[in-house]
Design goal:
- Helix 7 (99-110) packs parallel to helix 8 and helix 9 (159-172) packs parallel to helix 10 (188-201).
- This protein is α/β, with parallel strands linked by helices and 323 residues long.
- The chain has 14 helices and twelve strands.
- Helices cover 47% and strands 15% of the residues.
- The strands form three sheets. It has a six-stranded parallel β-sheet with strand order 2-1-3-4-5-11, with helices on both faces. A four-stranded parallel β-sheet has the order 7-6-8-9, sandwiched between helices.
- GO terms for molecular function: DNA binding.
- It comes from Glycomyces rhizosphaerae.
């Protein structure tokens, strides 16, 4: 390859590894030689020299079925895969939704098969976090890991601010009996969205007005039925994800409640589901693609021994027909 390009082996190596200290003419010569010879990088050989695998593991800490039910995960995977491909790196998805899954991920990481980890939907107290720390593996989370915000860098939407905006909107619409269906409280989306909601409703957000869900459509439907039992005269509900909100709409329709005439419904995410429900869902848009981009950017920076800070991106209230 060096002979074909008319440059040194060191120059070829710097070009193929994306280093910056290469002249434009040398880089052009190497790229032309790659195209003409059909050269393909030997990843195994590169790994022996650089101690890098060229792979990043994405760890999803949810049951496998949620990967296919929740459209947010496909956005995160697509964006991360594309960004890493631009750097000639691969993404490996691993599910750590139970003890068996966590054990498999831990063995994989201990084996040195990945250069870093992208953590998705990580729950507070997850024992896998200790394994990652012991392995000394660079890791970045999509959404803060509760209790480890100062230890594990993260990129996230403004969960608290988005929930506050939705609660204020429902109050401004004249709704007085406003309930909430939360996500799991050991996740930032569960905890911080609840904080944003209660910061507006105060004492009105009593225990009867709040039911905990699990980010699934079935969970949202079940939680909505329970909320109607707790508060029969409910006139609005903020649901902490669009997928759960779709389930809540089903429960309301089954109970004979008109949306939004009897009960206004607000969601969170602005996923593809939000515009597909009937009525279309008023929701909080989180810039999920941008969050994914920032998560990968932070991890790449860690791999290059750079200092990083958490990134929190603004949300936007999207008004549709459900509220």
């Amino acid at each position: 390859m060096a002979d074909a390009a008319g440059v040194s082996r060191g120059t070829v190596s710097r070009v193929l590894n994306g280093k910056a200290n290469v002249s434009l003419s040398a880089e052009t010569a190497v790229r032309r030689a790659v195209a003409e010879t059909g050269y393909v990088v030997n990843r195994a050989a590169r790994s022996l020299v650089t101690s890098r695998t060229g792979s990043i593991v994405m760890v999803l800490s949810e049951p496998q079925e949620r990967l296919f039910e929740d459209p947010n995960f496909s956005v995160l995977m697509r964006v991360a895969t594309n960004q890493l491909a631009d750097r000639d790196m691969s993404l490996v998805l691993m599910i750590a939704g139970d003890d068996g899954g966590r054990d498999r991920v831990a063995r994989y990481l201990r084996g040195g098969h990945a250069d870093g980890a992208l953590l998705i939907s990580t729950h507070a107290g997850d024992p896998l976090l200790d394994e990652i720390e012991r392995a000394g593996l660079p890791a970045v989370a999509q959404g803060a890991v509760l209790g480890r915000e100062s230890v594990i860098p993260y990129a996230a939407a403004d969960e608290r601010g988005g929930a506050r905006a939705m609660a204020e909107y429902l109050v401004d619409q004249g709704r007085r009996k406003i309930g909430m269906i939360t996500g799991p409280l050991d996740t930032p989306g569960g905890s911080l969205r609840l904080e944003g909601f209660t910061s507006v409703l105060g004492r009105k957000a009593g225990k009867q007005m709040i039911v905990h869900g699990d980010y699934t459509q079935a969970g949202g439907e079940s939680a909505m039925r329970k909320l109607l039992q707790n508060v029969p005269d409910l006139d609005a509900v903020f649901v902490a994800s669009d997928l759960m909100a779709a389930g809540a709409l089903q429960a309301l329709h089954a109970a004979g409640r008109r949306v939004p005439e009897d009960v206004a419904v607000g969601g969170f995410d602005d996923s593809a589901i939000a515009s597909a429900t009937r009525p279309a869902l008023t929701t909080v848009r989180q810039p999920l693609a941008k969050v994914a981009e920032e998560t990968v950017r932070l991890l790449i920076a860690l791999l290059e021994d750079e200092e990083v800070e958490p990134v929190v991106l603004p949300t936007e209230l999207i008004i549709r027909d459900s509220a």
